[in-house]
Specification:
single chain, Immunoglobulin-like, four-stranded antiparallel sheet, three-stranded mixed sheet, 2 helices, about 30% strand, elongated
Length: about 130
Protein backbone atom coordinates (compact mmCIF):
# COMPACT_ATOMS: atom_id res chain seq x y z
CA UNK A 1 0.00 0.00 0.00
CA UNK A 2 2.83 2.39 0.82
CA UNK A 3 4.45 1.64 -2.57
CA UNK A 4 1.28 2.65 -4.42
CA UNK A 5 1.08 5.90 -2.48
CA UNK A 6 4.74 6.71 -3.23
CA UNK A 7 4.27 5.81 -6.90
CA UNK A 8 1.20 8.08 -7.20
CA UNK A 9 3.04 10.88 -5.40
CA UNK A 10 6.05 10.61 -7.76
CA UNK A 11 3.79 10.45 -10.83
CA UNK A 12 1.90 13.57 -9.74
CA UNK A 13 5.18 15.36 -9.09
CA UNK A 14 6.46 14.50 -12.56
CA UNK A 15 3.22 15.60 -14.24
CA UNK A 16 3.24 18.89 -12.30
CA UNK A 17 6.88 19.52 -13.17
CA UNK A 18 6.37 18.79 -16.87
CA UNK A 19 3.27 20.97 -17.15
CA UNK A 20 5.03 23.93 -15.50
CA UNK A 21 8.00 23.50 -17.84
CA UNK A 22 5.68 23.42 -20.88
CA UNK A 23 3.94 26.57 -19.64
CA UNK A 24 7.32 28.32 -19.29
CA UNK A 25 8.33 27.30 -22.81
CA UNK A 26 5.02 28.52 -24.24
CA UNK A 27 5.34 31.81 -22.37
CA UNK A 28 8.89 32.27 -23.71
CA UNK A 29 7.76 31.59 -27.31
CA UNK A 30 5.06 34.28 -27.02
CA UNK A 31 7.43 36.85 -25.54
CA UNK A 32 7.65 40.01 -27.69
CA UNK A 33 11.18 41.02 -28.66
CA UNK A 34 12.66 43.90 -30.63
CA UNK A 35 14.12 42.42 -33.81
CA UNK A 36 16.70 44.41 -35.78
CA UNK A 37 16.73 43.20 -39.36
CA UNK A 38 19.54 43.94 -41.81
CA UNK A 39 19.24 43.56 -45.59
CA UNK A 40 22.12 41.94 -47.46
CA UNK A 41 21.15 42.81 -51.04
CA UNK A 42 23.00 40.71 -53.62
CA UNK A 43 20.52 41.57 -56.37
CA UNK A 44 20.81 44.19 -59.08
CA UNK A 45 17.83 46.06 -57.62
CA UNK A 46 17.60 49.03 -55.31
CA UNK A 47 17.14 48.22 -51.62
CA UNK A 48 13.74 49.93 -51.62
CA UNK A 49 12.39 47.10 -53.80
CA UNK A 50 12.44 44.80 -50.77
CA UNK A 51 10.58 44.79 -47.48
CA UNK A 52 10.23 42.39 -44.57
CA UNK A 53 7.13 40.34 -43.84
CA UNK A 54 6.58 38.55 -40.52
CA UNK A 55 5.00 35.11 -40.50
CA UNK A 56 2.31 34.35 -39.27
CA UNK A 57 1.32 37.88 -38.15
CA UNK A 58 1.66 39.40 -41.64
CA UNK A 59 3.30 42.57 -40.30
CA UNK A 60 5.53 44.35 -42.80
CA UNK A 61 8.37 46.85 -42.53
CA UNK A 62 10.46 48.77 -45.04
CA UNK A 63 14.23 49.12 -44.97
CA UNK A 64 15.95 52.44 -44.33
CA UNK A 65 19.70 52.30 -45.00
CA UNK A 66 19.49 48.49 -45.16
CA UNK A 67 17.96 48.25 -41.65
CA UNK A 68 14.54 47.98 -40.03
CA UNK A 69 13.09 47.08 -36.65
CA UNK A 70 10.01 45.09 -35.72
CA UNK A 71 8.44 43.98 -32.45
CA UNK A 72 7.60 40.29 -32.88
CA UNK A 73 6.99 37.13 -30.91
CA UNK A 74 10.07 34.95 -30.46
CA UNK A 75 8.25 32.18 -32.33
CA UNK A 76 7.80 34.37 -35.43
CA UNK A 77 9.64 34.06 -38.71
CA UNK A 78 10.54 36.80 -41.20
CA UNK A 79 11.09 36.77 -44.92
CA UNK A 80 11.97 39.16 -47.71
CA UNK A 81 9.18 40.10 -50.07
CA UNK A 82 8.80 42.70 -52.79
CA UNK A 83 7.55 46.06 -51.64
CA UNK A 84 3.90 46.66 -52.42
CA UNK A 85 5.10 49.69 -54.43
CA UNK A 86 6.21 47.25 -57.17
CA UNK A 87 3.23 45.00 -57.96
CA UNK A 88 4.67 43.61 -61.20
CA UNK A 89 7.73 42.07 -59.56
CA UNK A 90 7.79 38.84 -57.53
CA UNK A 91 10.38 37.75 -54.97
CA UNK A 92 9.93 35.80 -51.75
CA UNK A 93 12.69 34.38 -49.61
CA UNK A 94 12.51 31.40 -47.30
CA UNK A 95 11.17 32.38 -43.85
CA UNK A 96 13.81 32.38 -41.10
CA UNK A 97 13.43 32.33 -37.33
CA UNK A 98 13.77 35.71 -35.66
CA UNK A 99 16.63 36.61 -33.39
CA UNK A 100 17.51 39.96 -31.85
CA UNK A 101 19.75 40.66 -34.88
CA UNK A 102 18.55 38.99 -38.08
CA UNK A 103 20.15 39.25 -41.51
CA UNK A 104 18.03 38.62 -44.60
CA UNK A 105 19.82 37.96 -47.87
CA UNK A 106 18.31 38.92 -51.21
CA UNK A 107 20.01 36.69 -53.77
CA UNK A 108 18.54 36.91 -57.27
CA UNK A 109 21.10 34.71 -58.99
CA UNK A 110 20.25 31.25 -60.21
CA UNK A 111 21.64 28.79 -57.75
CA UNK A 112 23.05 25.44 -58.77
CA UNK A 113 20.24 23.81 -56.80
CA UNK A 114 17.59 25.62 -58.86
CA UNK A 115 19.39 24.76 -62.09
CA UNK A 116 19.36 21.08 -61.09
CA UNK A 117 15.65 21.22 -60.25
CA UNK A 118 14.77 22.83 -63.58
CA UNK A 119 16.95 20.35 -65.47
CA UNK A 120 15.23 17.46 -63.70
CA UNK A 121 11.78 18.88 -64.48
CA UNK A 122 12.77 19.44 -68.10
CA UNK A 123 13.94 15.84 -68.40
CA UNK A 124 10.85 14.45 -66.68
CA UNK A 125 8.30 16.43 -68.69
CA UNK A 126 10.09 16.57 -72.03
CA UNK A 127 7.52 16.35 -74.89
CA UNK A 128 9.88 14.33 -77.10
CA UNK A 129 10.35 11.52 -74.57
CA UNK A 130 6.61 10.71 -74.24
Amino acid sequence: MLYKFIFVLIALSIVTFLSTQLAKIEKEKNKIIKVQITLDNKCDFFDKVFMVKAVPSGKTARFINKKTEMFLKKSSKVQLVVSDEYPGFHFTSIPVNVTYNTILVADCSNSERLDNIFESLKNQFNKDSN
